[in-house]
């Protein structure tokens, strides 16, 4: 399966013109890339416009509502995203969890996203690490609650993003995670998921996110035990983001 690099633009940039430029510049800079799948998760209001610019990069949303349709002022549904050509959606991001998102809602959203034909990018990750390694159980609980009741053969359609909150660029007093942190959690996530699967079921892709940049991307890709990366801040710079994509491309055999 192809490796995947996913950009999370968060609530940036502030105009459609800038969004179009960032997108087009990124498309240009990755024109030779063939073996790596590239996705940009942009604010809702830009998605239709970006879709018209190029199909080289797939598009993702950053959230959906937990109900399929109805009187929910201000919300966006999974079908709405799918019907404008969006393929992916980030769910359970720590910045949304900080605003009140919980595992139960994320579970509903995953099921709705799958039903609509979107690929959920499920974010899990601990706020802090403790000496007793309780963070493994924290992530296990997130996985179990968020994936509760999801059909075994749908699990391979989900991408699991391990994002230790303490390493994300928006976290106050953040610190760097390294490829070893990523690899041990990727192994743990694979084991947790494989306990739920039959032999014939495929594994979901597992990716790492948390302040990845063009200097450490190679280490995460080669030694982090993951199938790709989720990139926030660095994705707002076309040069930096495309370097990360090319590093991934070069690492593919
Ligand atoms: C994220 O928040 O999903 C993320 C990866 O952000 P950053 O790379 O800025 O830490």
Automatic annotation (TrEMBL):
What biological processes does GO assign it?
gluconeogenesis; glyceraldehyde-3-phosphate biosynthetic process; glycerol catabolic process; glycolytic process
Which pathway or pathways does this protein act in? Answer: Carbohydrate biosynthesis; gluconeogenesis; Carbohydrate degradation; glycolysis; D-glyceraldehyde 3-phosphate from glycerone phosphate: step 1/1
Report a single Gene Ontology molecular function: triose-phosphate isomerase activity
PROSITE patterns hit by this protein = TIM_2 (PS51440)
Protein origin, superkingdom: Bacteria
Q: Please provide, in alphabetical order, the Gene Ontology terms of the cellular component aspect for this entry.
A: cytosol
Give the first-level EC class, as a single word: isomerase
Q: EC?
A: 5.3.1.1
User: Main subcellular localization, coarse class?
Assistant: cytoplasm
| UniProt-listed SUPFAM superfamilies | Triosephosphate isomerase (TIM) (SSF51351)
Write out the entry's keywords from A to Z.
Answer: Cytoplasm, Gluconeogenesis, Glycolysis, Isomerase
Recorded catalytic reaction(s): these are: D-glyceraldehyde 3-phosphate = dihydroxyacetone phosphate
Checking InterPro entries in the record gives: Aldolase_TIM, TIM_sf, Triosephosphate_isomerase
> What is the annotated localization of this protein?
Cytoplasm
Q: How does it assemble?
A: Homodimer.
Which protein family is named in the record? Belongs to the triosephosphate isomerase family.
NCBIfam families linked: tim
Q: What is the protein's name according to its record?
A: Triosephosphate isomerase
Cite the source lineage: Bacteria, Candidatus Nomuraibacteriota
């Amino acid at each position: 399966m192809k490796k995947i690099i996913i950009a999370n633009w968060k609530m940036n940039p502030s105009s459609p013109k800038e969004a179009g430029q960032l997108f087009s510049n990124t498309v240009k800079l990755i024109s030779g890339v063939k073996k790596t799948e590239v996705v940009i998760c942009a604010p809702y209001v830009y998605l239709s416009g970006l879709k018209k610019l190029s199909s080289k990069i797939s598009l993702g949303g950053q959230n959906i509502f937990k109900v399929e349709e109805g009187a929910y002022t201000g919300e966006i549904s999974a079908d709405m995203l799918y019907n404008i050509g969006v393929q992916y959606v980030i769910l359970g991001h720590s910045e949304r969890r900080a605003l009140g998102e919980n595992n139960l809602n994320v579970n509903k959203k995953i099921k709705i996203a799958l039903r609509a034909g979107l690929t959920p990018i499920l974010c899990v990750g601990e706020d802090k690490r403790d000496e007793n390694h309780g963070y493994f159980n924290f992530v296990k609980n997130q996985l179990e609650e968020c994936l509760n009741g999801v059909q075994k053969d749908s699990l391979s359609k989900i991408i699991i993003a391990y994002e230790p909150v303490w390493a994300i660029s928006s976290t106050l007093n953040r610190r760097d995670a390294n490829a070893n942190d990523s690899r041990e959690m990727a192994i743990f996530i694979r084991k947790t998921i494989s306990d739920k699967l039959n032999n014939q079921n495929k594994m979901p892709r597992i990716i790492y996110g948390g302040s990845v940049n063009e200097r450490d991307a190679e280490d995460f890709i080669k030694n982090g035990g993951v199938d790709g990366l989720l990139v926030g801040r660095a994705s707002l710079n076309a040069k930096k983001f495309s370097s990360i994509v090319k590093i991934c491309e070069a690492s593919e055999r």
